[in-house]
Amino acid sequence: MKRQGFMMKWHKIRSLGLLAGLGLLSGCVSFGGAEPPPFLLSLTPDTQVDAGAVRAGPRAGALVVQLPSTPQKLNNLRVPVQTSTTAIAYLKEATWVDKPARLFQGLLTETIAAKNNRLVLTSVQAQGKADTYLSGELVNFGLDGPSLTVTVTYDAVKIRDGKPVEKRRFEASENVFAAEAGPVGEALNRAANKVVLEVADWVG
Asked: b/e string for 103-141 if b means 16 or more Cβ within 10 A?
């Protein structure tokens, strides 16, 4: 009987230990008390730099792609939905892995480097000595609810040493069959790739 009682206590202690371990594990993957999103959205470039590719040259001839500015509706990880001429909501269960400005900057950098065989540096790497700077504003990066159309609008500014500053608007739209995270994310990725390809041709 003593042995049976000891074994029961042991199993009870062991079970409590397992539950405590599971509690610690769940704490490691906590999303602040909220349910985690079913998946995260990102942007994938249609044109990519090959693995092992080397680009070399003086910093003076490099291009720097700066982080675009954004309106407040894009200064978060959500996908804005224009529900009327004055009202904006956010798409349910649609969450970016990073803010749209950073994702778009990465897409621009990768596409220009691959398509133009161009040396593209960060501002820190260039140390203010690059020949060309690309900046601008990511104006639209979301869904129009009534028309089920996503639109990406980028107001690009090209600044080259010794030449006039140029500004140009680039825009692309894609239709979606439903206001859901999956199809909207895919459509925004297609539209963003169309825009950055045009920007790559323009910036050279």
From this structure: bbbbbbbbbbbbbeebbbbeeeebeeebbbbbbbbbbbb
